[in-house]
């Protein structure tokens, strides 16, 4: 009995002293929160919101968007994974670099397993400013859905406080490839 108690004590001490390997917690910028903030601002503004849709560079349609419909127009941006969520963050990796030619810090988030994710890239272009604070100027998001015989690729650009654009390229079986560019602006002619 005495040896049994010693063995149990030894095992419990040994296992509690083992080093537990923890993966460092990833703390990423929430691209989704930045876009939600922009949407909320436009929803309460008096800007004229204009939407231009171009299909295969052959046909352009222009629409005015009501403020209350603006959030619906941004749906594809609002459905991106939130990188501030720990469960999502572990699926992505971050790379940061400074681009001298653009004078921008570029923060890129890409999936650890690209074949499992629709969003292939979330990228922030940041204007560094030590006096007033760094500012995000652009957000770039690329998505891809590929099936056996078709694919849909989207390249999305959000220009902070100005506009967004979604370029959608569709390849469907037995049909020619189509490209649709949707551009929504709300601050044209306004100074920043």
- Element pattern in H and E: HHEEHHHEEEEEEE
Which range best describes the helical content: under 10%, 10-25%, 25-40%, 40-55%, 55-70% or over 70%? 10-25%
Q: What's the quaternary structure here?
A: single chain
Residue-averaged pLDDT: 86
Q: Enumerate how many helices there are, as a single number.
A: 5
Structure description:
- This protein has 192 residues and is α+β, with helices and mostly antiparallel strands.
- The chain has one domain.
- The chain is built from five helices and nine strands.
- Strands 2-1-9-8-7-6-5-4-3 form a nine-stranded antiparallel sheet, with no helix packed on it.
Descriptive keywords:
192 residues, alpha+beta, 9-stranded antiparallel β-sheet, 9 strands, 21% helix, 40% strand, disordered N terminus
Summed up:
By secondary structure, the protein is α+β, with helices and mostly antiparallel strands. The chain has five helices and nine strands, in the order ααββαααβββββββ.
Q: What is the topological layout?
A:
Layout: H1 2-17, H2 31-43, E1 49-55, E2 59-65, H3 70-73, H4 75-78, H5 86-89, E3 92-99, E4 104-111, E5 119-127, E6 135-146, E7 151-159, E8 163-171, E9 178-185
Antiparallel strand pairs: 1-2, 1-9, 3-4, 4-5, 5-6, 6-7, 7-8, 8-9
């Amino acid at each position: 009995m005495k040896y049994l108690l010693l063995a149990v004590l030894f095992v419990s001490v040994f296992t509690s002293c083992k080093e537990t390997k923890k993966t460092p917690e990833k703390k990423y910028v929430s691209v989704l929160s930045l876009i939600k903030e922009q949407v909320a601002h436009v929803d309460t503004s008096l800007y004229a919101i204009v939407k231009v849709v171009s299909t295969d560079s052959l046909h352009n349609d222009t629409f005015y968007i009501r403020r209350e419909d603006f959030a619906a127009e941004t749906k594809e941006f609002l459905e991106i994974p939130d990188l501030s969520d720990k469960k999502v963050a572990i699926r992505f990796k971050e790379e940061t670099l400074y681009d001298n030619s653009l004078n921008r810090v570029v923060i890129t988030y890409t999936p650890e397993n690209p074949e499992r994710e629709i969003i292939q890239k979330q990228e922030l272009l940041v204007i560094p400013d030590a006096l007033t604070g760094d500012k995000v100027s652009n957000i770039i998001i690329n998505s891809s859905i590929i099936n056996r015989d078709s694919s849909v690729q989207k390249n999305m650009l959000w220009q902070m406080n100005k506009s967004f654009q979604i370029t959608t390229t569709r390849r469907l079986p037995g049909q020619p490839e189509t490209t649709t560019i949707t551009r929504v602006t709300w601050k044209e002619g306004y100074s920043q």
